[in-house]
Design brief:
Order of helices and strands: HEHHEEEEEHEHEEEHEE
Distance between the termini: 98 Å
Number of helices: 6
Structural class: alpha/beta
Largest sheet: 9 strands, mixed
Strand content: 25-35%
Strand order of the largest sheet: 6-5-4-7-8-9-10-11-12
Amino acid sequence: MSATRLMDLAARLLFGLALLVLTGTAVAWVAQRPAFDFHRLEVQGAGGELQHVSGSAVRTAVAGKLRGGFFSMPLDEARVVFETVPWVANASVRRVWPDRLVVTLTEHRALGVWSDGRLLSDAGILFVANAAEAEIYGPLPEFDGPPQFAAEAARRYYRLAAQLAPLALRIEGLQVSDRASWSLRASAGERDVQIHLGRDDPAGALDARVALAAAHYPVVVGKFSAPPARLDLRYPNGFAATPPAESNKR
């Protein structure tokens, strides 16, 4: 190939690159014009109506935090902004031509109140929200322990609640120590029952101890003529029960 043809080819390539740059710059400039700003923000629930989040509250919470217009807004960044709104667990964001931003939100479902004031979701996630808004159907169980146990606490709560429900015991509080030793406070009518569960070591041992105590719990209640004040399940082949006291009434 001659030097002239090489120079001609190089010139064509440079011209093409310059044209691409100019086109891209022009498109970016046009995309950022006010004519392509979002003028409507539509907020909806993933499974129907939202219980704790309103469209007006979302708009107020994200005001000034979103950047870009219809073509230029980074949707992933916008999603992160919406997920900072109290009660929002997940958000999905999409554009609807010509000027609408549609946000679909999934709310946290509060399971209980953690000892640091945060709420624990049924998925085992700690989040910040007004606890009073979560207690519309009554007081929530109380959870206490290092935050790293939050996910396990939610899973264990449901297993324990299912094991204790046939005994008319309702979990009011669940505690875990730094050494992963578990205990709970349950209500039995007007009385509280403190149950020390111990460590789940080896795995499955805790469930087995609860099952053993549940099988013999009616005998204990019959012997005391009332629910016991305390059950200690931290024994290899049995459990200990403390007789009820008048002070144990709620």
